[in-house]
Amino acid sequence: MDPESFPFVVLGNKIDVEENRRMISSKRAMTFCQSKGGIPYFETSAKEAVNVEQAFEGEIRHLLSYVPPQTDRI
């Protein structure tokens, strides 16, 4: 698959940490995702189990949107 069209997503972990203590701010991550054609962005906290499941479900939906429908073969 072409890297330019690969269905990437970005996960920002550690949302339980104060915004000013993060390595990458939410705004910077969202700006990056938009500059790359609207890559989906999810903020999560593995420590507090916030949005982890939703991020994986979102990635699967995003990935499936790139899979061509199968045709029946006889």
Structure description:
- Helices cover 31% and strands 8% of the residues.
- The chain is an alpha+beta fold and 74 residues long.
- It is built from 2 helices and 2 strands.
- The two termini are 27 Å apart.
- It has one domain.
- It is flat.
- Strand 1, helix 1 and strand 2 form a beta-alpha-beta unit.
Domain module tally: 1
Give the rounded overall mean pLDDT: 84
List the strand order in the largest sheet: 1-2
Distance between the termini: 27 Å
Report on the biggest sheet.
2 strands, parallel
Q: In terms of per-residue confidence, which ranges show pLDDT below 50 for 5 or more consecutive residues?
A: none
Global morphology: flat
Feature tags:
74 residues, alpha+beta, 31% helix
Write the layout of secondary structure elements.
Layout (H helix, E strand, L loop, with lengths): L9 E3 L13 H10 L5 E3 L8 H13 L10
Parallel strand pairs: 1-2
Give a brief outline of the structure.
The protein is α+β, with helices and mostly antiparallel strands and 74 residues long.
